[in-house]
Amino acid sequence: MKNHAGGLEEKLRDCLDHPLFRVVSEVSGEMDVPAFVVGGYVRDCLLGRDHPDLDIDIVVVGRGIEVARAVARRLRPRPRVNVFRNFGTANFRYENIEVDFVGARRESYRRDSRKPIVEDGTLEDDQRRRDFTINAMALALHPKEWGTFLDPFHGLDDLRKHLIRTPLDPRITFSDDPLRMLRAIRFATQLDFRIEPTVFEAIRLNRKRIHIVSMERIITELNKILMSPRPSVGFLLLDRSGLLEEILPEIHALKGVDQRQGKAHKDVFLHTIQVVDNVARKSDNLWLRWAALLHDVAKPATKKFVEGQGWTFHGHDFIGSKMVPRIFRRLKLPLNDKMKYVQKLVALHLRPIALTTNEVTDSAVRRLLFEAGDDIDDLMLLCEADITSKNERKVRQHLENFRKVREKLKEIEEKDAIRNFQPPVTGEDIMETFGIPPSRTIGILKEAIKEAILEGTIRNDRREAYRYMLEKAREMGLEVRKNLMAAEEGASPEDDR
Ligand code: CTP
Questions:
Q1: How confident is the model at residue 236 (pLDDT cuts 50, 70, 90)?
Q2: What is the largest CA-CA distance in the chain?
Q3: Ranges of each domain in the chain
Q4: Closest C-alpha to 71, from 111, 101, 102
Q5: CATH topology of domain 172-247
Q6: CA distance 298 to 216
Q7: Does domain 8-159 bear CATH number 3.10.20.340?
Q8: pLDDT mean over 312-328
Q9: Is 23 a residue whose pLDDT tops 90?
Q10: Ligand 1 mean position to 8 CA, how many Å?
Q11: Any residues with Cβ below 6 Å from ligand 1, and which?
Q12: Residue 216 pLDDT exceeds 50
């Protein structure tokens, strides 16, 4: 953001560059109703933040719905207008832009509010009831005042000071909508801003009120914190404000250090958020970030002090992965393949490091490839991010070991193609060969073949697997169907896949 006045004017002019604003302006002039662009669009435009998809909020002083309709009629192609009469709002999608029209209101503003509103306020009433000063700046669109910057709560100063502040007494702003406490932390994290001390204090005092907010709205903000460049900023603020304990008790439980016989373990909370930051630097996969947040979630439940050894957390990988569904369900996160992915990474997060402490055998690498499948690269990324030791020598040693594991993974994958393992002999092959119906025997044979491949007894190859199956079946007393005897002689099915 440029500081001198000329810079600002130029910037504001650029903010209204889109032809859409000209159309709103024409309509506003012809109907003679004041209209303004406000909120996140103005904030992000002044910050020079780019978005692939834009959200534009237009406040109209009276007749918001009519203005929306008139604007839509002039656009080509003409967008379909959704009208929410009870809320005095209307919106449409135009190109890659979501455009919302609201009547200026005296009551609290919230885009996702389900409460009917009364649209009888002035622009300033509307600005006053918004969440933060940086979200309450407006630009006039009526031709008579085109481009006038309206900032009664000094949002621009706060943008320059990198400050999150509420237009009203924060207790009022937060009681209008307690989600705003979490939004304050989300904006501070995304933008790397400070929260003004009185605002932060109000969050601390009102933290329990977060429970009246729906989990869906909470999770939207948590995901935005996780998707920020340095999520740890947000988690530290969540902790200091007391919100962490309210909304993520499992993560709050990771805090603290125990000492016994001069041995301390590290603070798992601080370690965890550092791992999340490390992952965030390498990948913008939200679910990998969730996996990082939850990778040690079972450490409190598995913590033990063992004489002569110190603190142990045996099984925290396995127990942690079992805890994931409950946490996802409570947080209303999807219970689909995203959850399975997080579970898998939590379950396997110690495996690559375990590989490096022993001699790296081919079969151990094959088993890891088999279990991780296509998520092996993300798993390796998580494991590298998990190294947060301050001891440089140790870090270097770990990274060198990981380099070796990666090499070995590549070598084995090229040779054995385990990553997307498909059984080289199928259940149908087995039924066909022995003339048997679906039964447990088929599972046993398939498992034996898979084990032999992972152990390296045979290669991942149809011919070898078929031969191996015949051998195993003979041991189990199974007989090959008569008309297939010839094939057994050749020990090969018709097609070699
Ligand atoms: N707003 C508010 N209180 C809320 C939510 C939103 O006052 N609880 C106001 C703010 O003025 C905000 C605008 O509504 O700028 C739009 O809300 P939203 O789209 O949720 O946020 P943005 O500020 O646009 O930010 P982002 O796109 O990053 O979510």
A1: very high
A2: 94
A3: 8-159, 172-247, 285-416, 427-496
A4: 101
A5: Hydrophobic Seed Protein (1.10.110)
A6: 25
A7: no
A8: 97
A9: yes
A10: 23
A11: 39-40, 55, 57, 109-111, 130-131, 135-136, 177, 179-180, 183
A12: yes
CA dist 297 and 304 (Å) reads 15
- Distances, alpha carbon 479 to alpha carbons 263, 490, 494, in Å: 62, 16, 19
**In the predicted model, what is the mean pLDDT of the chain?**
91
- Band (pLDDT 50/70/90 cuts) for residue 425 is very high
Q: What sign for the dihedral angle of Cα 427, 430, 433, 438? A: negative
What is the 41 CA–ligand 1 centroid distance (Å)?
A: 9
Task: Return the structure tokens found at 273.
Answer: 């958020």
| pLDDT score at 112 | 73
Q: Which atom of ligand 1 is nearest to the CA of 51?
A: 27
Three-state SS sequence of 388-448:
CCCCHHHHHHHHHHHHHHHHHHHHHHHHHCCCCCCCCCCHHHHHHHHCCCCCHHHHHHHHH
Contact 276, 229 (CB under 8 A): no
417-430 per-residue burial string, b: 16 or more CB within 10 A, e: under 16: ebbebebbbeeebb
122 CA from centroid of ligand 1 (Å): 19
Pairing of strands 89-94, 97-103: antiparallel
pLDDT number for residue 401: 85
pTM greater than 0.85 = yes
